[in-house]
Design a protein that fits this description.
alpha+beta, about 140 residues, Double Stranded RNA Binding Domain, single chain
Amino acid sequence: MVRINENLEIPDSELSFRYSRSSGPGGQNVNKVATKVTLLFAVADSATLSEYQKAVVAERLATRIAKDGVLHLSSERHRTRSANQRDAVERFADLVAAALRPRKRRRATGVPDSSKRRRLETKRQRSERKKLRSRPATDD
């Protein structure tokens, strides 16, 4: 079971893993051993998440979800497959928890006095600049 928050746990049966060779330096170990872990989670097919939770996760994690509705999350930070699998599961739990956390509403505030002053000052300067463009008045 993967604990998302105090009210939600996703069973391991809903997660699947794919293993491949990691990229980057590492010599013989990296060339021979499949230590990179890709966690796959079918959001739409989840029996644990409610329809509302599925919609929220799909919306907020849209960049990580493929067209087939599967969330892909990979880890290749560590040298061992087990450490990468733990890392992927932890990151998955953090991602889903953050997606399901309600967003704080923005409290509307007034325009600050400093902004008003700055706007009026630039307006005055622009007016002065345009006045200087006109021909000087001749007093006869």
